[in-house]
Structure formats: C-alpha cells, structure tokens
Write a structure and sequence with these properties.
Helix content is 35%, strand content 20%. The two termini are 22 Å apart. Helix 1 runs parallel beside helix 4. It has two domains: 78 residues, Roll (Endonuclease I-creI); 87 residues, Endonuclease I-creI, CATH 3.10.28. The protein has six helices and seven strands. The protein is of the alpha+beta class.
C-alpha cells in the first residue's frame, strides 16, 4: 500500500499499514530534503517497542533509529529512510515541503476508515492535549483543520454521522462528536485491534 502494492512479503496487511498512516498523520513529521530526509515520530511516553512494531509492519529494510527525550513532548524517534519518507508524502504525513493535507483520504474505502482513524486516535494520545477517552460517549481528536475536515467527511460518508470542528490556538483544531455520534464512532473503532494495545 505504502510502496504502491497491496501487500509485499514481509510487510503487514493493508489495514495495519493504514493504521500507521493515521498514527503518523498526527505523531509524525518529515524533515529535510533529498538524501537527508528523516521521519520524526513523537511517541510521548510510549515505549521504544512501539516503534519496533512500526518498522516491522511498514518496512522491508532495517532502518536506523535515533531516540531522544524532550521535556515538552517526551520520546521522539528519528527514522532516516528516504524511500519511506517519499512514500508518505502523498498520504499527507506532515512535511515542510508538502504540507499535511491529502486528497487520498477522500477515496479511502470503508474497510480502511476504521484502522486509519484508530491510528489517528492513537497518534493523538502521544500528546498532552489528547482528550479522547475510550468508553466515553464523546469522541474528540486534534489536528489541522484541513485534515480534520477530511476525517469528518470520511466518517459522515461511511457511518452517517458528523462532528464539529473547533479551531484553537497554535494552528491546532479539534474535531468533536457528541452523543450519539461519539458512541457510534467508538463502536466502529472497537472492531479493530489497535497496534498500541495489541
């Protein structure tokens, strides 16, 4: 999927790859250009094993990882792989060169909406501003207004519910679903086993 194939030997199925795309839409950022491209993933307080699962699921080759700890965002990992970064550009993983909005999300089939949104929710949990709580009748995720508008459209298209986007400070916005829409989304997402809770 990422590399232009449904599934290559040694990589995860398409639904798992879509989970990671959702995760990286929030927790990832691509820095640099040319041979110096690096994917920086904010893990917060997640363990290093989480990124090992990611690299096993997404890549065919061994990727050099550098970990650092920030007092403001917790653990971050730098993945230096030009091919991986280039494969992520069209999907809207944030980058200085290509931004973070992706029209590919508008064509995402229903069977991939659940893993993508699960990944997006888990990516939100890496940050202190995350307010989504499993088991709640409300559902809230954060991101840029453009990406949240595409997610809202996806949810409305596939499940017939819509939320409200609230723009806040520092270019971050919230997509809020209240009951019963929030409960409907939670019931859909519970059908996918999250990689962070597997």
């Amino acid at each position: 999927m990422l590399r232009g194939h449904d599934s290559l030997p040694g990589t995860a199925p398409a639904d798992v790859q879509l989970y990671w795309l959702g995760f990286l839409m929030v927790a990832g950022h691509i820095w640099g250009q040319g041979s110096s491209l690096a994917l920086v993933v904010t893990l917060g307080e997640e363990s290093r094993k989480y990124i090992a699962t990611f690299t096993a699921d997404i890549t065919l080759d061994r990727i050099h990882c550098e970990f650092c700890y920030s007092s403001t965002v917790g653990w971050q990992v730098y993945l230096r792989d030009q091919g991986l970064c280039k494969a992520l550009f069209p999907w809207g993983v944030p980058s200085d060169l290509h931004g973070d909005d992706s029209a590919l999300l508008d064509d995402l089939p229903k069977e991939f909406a659940i893993p993508f949104i699960c990944g997006y929710v888990d990516g939100n949990r890496s940050f202190a501003y995350s307010s989504d709580r499993l088991g709640s009748n409300k559902f809230t995720v954060h991101g840029t207004a453009a990406v949240l508008a595409r997610i809202n459209s996806m949810v409305e298209r596939h499940w017939g519910v819509s939320g409200r986007i609230v723009t806040s400070r520092q270019d971050r916005s919230e997509l809020r679903f209240s009951d019963p829409a929030g409960r409907a989304i939670h019931s859909q997402l519970e059908t996918f086993t999250s990689r962070s809770r597997a």
